[in-house]
Amino acid sequence: MKILKWLFILAVIVVAGFIGFMSYMGMFSRPLISERNMGPYAVVYEEYTGPYQNMGKVFEKINKEMKEEGIEATRGLGIYLDDPMKVSPDKLRAQGGIIIEDKDQPKVAGLKQKYSVMEIEVASCAVIEFPVKNNLSYMLGPIKNYTLLSKYFSMKNYQMGKSYEIYDMPNKKIFYVMEIKKSE
Predict the structure, then answer these.
(1) Burial bucket for residue 70 (CB in 10 Å: 0-12, 13-18, 19+)
(2) What is the reported pTM?
């Protein structure tokens, strides 16, 4: 009987700890979805195929290359082209890189000679801000926020345009961004 009591107490502590940790990670908060213009962005990027959880290597590589070019990245940008629920992990496609800040815009023409550079134009978007607490934020955020954005688009009768994530490193935030295409 004493063992059952201690097992019950242990189970309560484990469950409470898990709930507390998930709360800290932002999983129980209700994020605010805002509509605002996002962009324009010049992005130095690389194409990637494979499991999305390995995208960090792409960001590290581009960040290192940009440091060698004298560009200090403060924001990353990831475009995830496939639904991981429908496409096998080894066939998932993405583009990952860094946003070139205003002070480095004069260097963009030279970067185009050596790297892939894309321009993302200003667009009306639905946006969710999600806090970065640790590396787990990059896995939990999509689970929570893409579901909310999909429901929002359905409720508003919007069609999705380009979807991307901005990683604001100094402010420790991820912005989940979906361009809005209003139904005719």
Answers:
(1) exposed
(2) 0.80
